[in-house]
């Protein structure tokens, strides 16, 4: 089994302390400014456009299962978009690839409609669809659903594989607003080509807190930036040390090389 | 009450995995030299999580069947597609059972190798057309960023194919397209990929902590 060594444990403790410190700071009313994230801010624009057109909003979940944090981040965004669509009385459809995510997606949608006082308008059978665990079948079905329902906007959120283009291209050819979020790197170029906005890297995980409108949650986003600064500082330290032949500098480089995968 | 239970279970489960990871496999001698007390239970807990996840496995296909049966009963658009789905679902299950019981199964071969594989290959063929269409959109120089991307893509594409070598073979090696393509891949591309991954790791850590402490999972 894999266990943390001292350095990893110290880093984890430092990150956790930073996050909790900013949470505590935000609860005391000192909320930092959070820069607008265009991809996330445009979710409202996309749902609004679909409402104006009288067409459905399609939310396509990624392929990670419920044990992955990526799925939970996607469910946070799903909840926000579903509430928005319910409020505007816009038809909403969620497509699910992984069977164990299905009950969670259904529950999130039910809660979203309930929160808007429209539980009677929620139809689990019609609004949450499991398509297939097979990547190609899922992608083809998602693309076809976007075409057939003449979607007003499509949101792809989660971990996607080589089939991302198959599901995003039909919407791009229809000219609808498309927003994609993927924490990985491999599919980003395809989403950049086919979607209006692409949410990448830490923005993907920040979306839930950003959309929550809770100043406390938004406060923790500052700590994410500080974690990035801390890690960038370590990269810089390793780079500078690698330029010198002094035993201390070499010892630092060797120490960091142990963590290079 | 329900939310409190969900948060409690999440917290206890997360605490188990966190402590199992943070505690060393064997404590140093000065600390007693005992083995990690949680590691022996890791497999059992992981299996439990997998079993609970498997219980949800049937929910997906059940939703599919309910959705398509509803389309047929209410005679909605796509009635024939739904009927075809149900017929092939029954045939697929029958073929899988037959294949499980006997090695050679004509029904299985026809459905999986004759139909499913062919459909998969056709779909992948479509991907190449979509690639061209998406690349055309990406290569339209609508801004400075798009121009830089197009230049980098052109260098990388030409540097990977023999014609790129042919164009620049008479120039000094540092001017070869292959050299420039490799530089684009190794330096700017690699640096940006690592930067995005570092940001994503920090984000995943923060999101994980929020969910573990029940601060962010208010939608569930």
Strand content of chain B: under 5%
Radius of gyration of chain A: 21 Å
Spans of chain A of at least 5 consecutive residues whose pLDDT stays below 50 are: none
CATH topology of the largest domain in chain A: Rossmann fold
Give a short overview.
The complex is a heterodimer of chains A (261) and B (220). Chain A is of the alpha/beta class. Chain A has helices at residues 6-27, 38-53, 69-87, 102-115, 124-127, 135-148, 164-174, 188-194, 202-211, 215-241, 247-257, and strands spanning 57-61, 92-96, 128-130, 153-157, 177-182, 197-200.
What can you see in these coordinates?
The complex is a heterodimer of chains A (261) and B (220). Chain A is an alpha/beta fold and 261 residues long. Chain A has two domains: 38-211, 3-Layer(aba) Sandwich (Rossmann fold), CATH 3.40.50.720; 215-261. Helix content of chain A is 59%, strand content 11%. Chain A has a six-stranded parallel beta sheet with strand order 3-2-1-4-5-6, with helices on both faces. The longest helix of chain A has 27 residues, at 215-241. The two termini of chain A are 17 Å apart. The model of chain A has no long low-confidence stretch (mean pLDDT 89). Chain B is an all-alpha fold and 220 residues long. Chain B folds into three domains: 1-57; 75-138, no CATH class; 146-202, no CATH class. Chain B contains eight helices and no strands. Chain B has helices spanning 2-22, 39-55, 59-73, 79-101, 106-138, 144-160, 162-168, 177-212. The radius of gyration of chain B is 28 Å and the shape is extended. At the A-B interface, α1, α3, α4, α5 and β3 of A face α1, α2, α3, α5 and α8 of B.
């Amino acid at each position: 089994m894999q266990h943390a060594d001292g350095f990893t444990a110290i880093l984890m403790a430092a990150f956790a302390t930073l996050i909790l410190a900013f949470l505590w700071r935000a609860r005391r009313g000192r909320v930092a400014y959070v820069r607008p994230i265009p991809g996330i801010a445009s979710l409202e624009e996309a749902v609004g456009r679909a409402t104006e057109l009288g067409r459905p909003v399609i939310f396509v979940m990624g392929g990670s299962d419920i044990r992955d944090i990526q799925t939970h981040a996607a469910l946070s965004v799903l909840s926000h978009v579903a509430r928005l669509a319910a409020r505007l009385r816009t038809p909403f459809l969620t497509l699910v690839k992984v069977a164990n995510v299905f009950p969670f997606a259904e529950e999130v949608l039910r809660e979203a409609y309930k929160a808007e006082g429209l539980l009677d308008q929620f139809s689990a059978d019609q609004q949450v669809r499991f398509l297939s665990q097979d990547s190609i079948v899922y992608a083809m079905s998602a693309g076809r659903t976007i075409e057939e329902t003449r979607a007003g906007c499509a949101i792809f959120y989660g971990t996607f594989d080589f089939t991302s283009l198959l599901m995003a291209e039909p919407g791009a050819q229809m000219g609808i607003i498309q927003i994609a979020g993927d924490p990985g790197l491999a599919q980003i170029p395809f989403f950049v080509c086919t979607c209006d906005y692409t949410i990448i890297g830490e923005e993907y995980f920040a979306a839930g807190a950003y959309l929550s409108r809770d100043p406390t949650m938004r406060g923790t986003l500052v700590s994410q930036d500080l974690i990035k600064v801390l890690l960038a500082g370590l990269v810089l330290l390793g780079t500078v040390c690698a330029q010198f032949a002094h035993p201390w500098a070499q010892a630092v480089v060797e120490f960091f090389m142990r963590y290079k995968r | 009450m329900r939310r409190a239970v969900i948060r409690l279970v999440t917290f206890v489960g997360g605490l188990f995995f966190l402590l199992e990871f943070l505690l060393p496999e064997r404590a140093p001698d000065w600390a007693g030299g005992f083995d990690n007390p949680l590691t022996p239970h890791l497999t059992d807990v992981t299996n439990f999580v997998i079993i609970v996840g498997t219980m949800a496995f049937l929910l997906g296909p059940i939703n599919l069947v309910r959705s398509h049966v509803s389309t047929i009963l209410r005679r909605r658009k796509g009635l024939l597609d739904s009927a075809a789905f149900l017929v092939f679902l029954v045939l697929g299950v029958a073929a899988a059972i037959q294949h499980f019981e006997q090695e050679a199964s004509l029904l299985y071969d026809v459905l999986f190798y004759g139909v499913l594989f062919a459909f998969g290959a056709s779909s992948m063929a479509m991907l190449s057309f979509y690639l061209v269409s998406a690349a055309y959109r990406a290569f339209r120089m609508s801004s400075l960023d798009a121009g830089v991307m197009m230049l980098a893509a052109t260098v990388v594409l030409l540097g990977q194919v023999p014609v790129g070598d042919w164009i620049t073979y008479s120039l000094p090696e540092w001017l070869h397209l292959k050299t420039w393509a490799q530089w684009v891949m190794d330096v700017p591309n690699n640096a940006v990929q690592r930067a995005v991954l570092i940001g994503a790791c920090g984000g995943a850590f923060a999101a994980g902590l929020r969910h573990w402490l029940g601060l962010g999972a208010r939608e569930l």
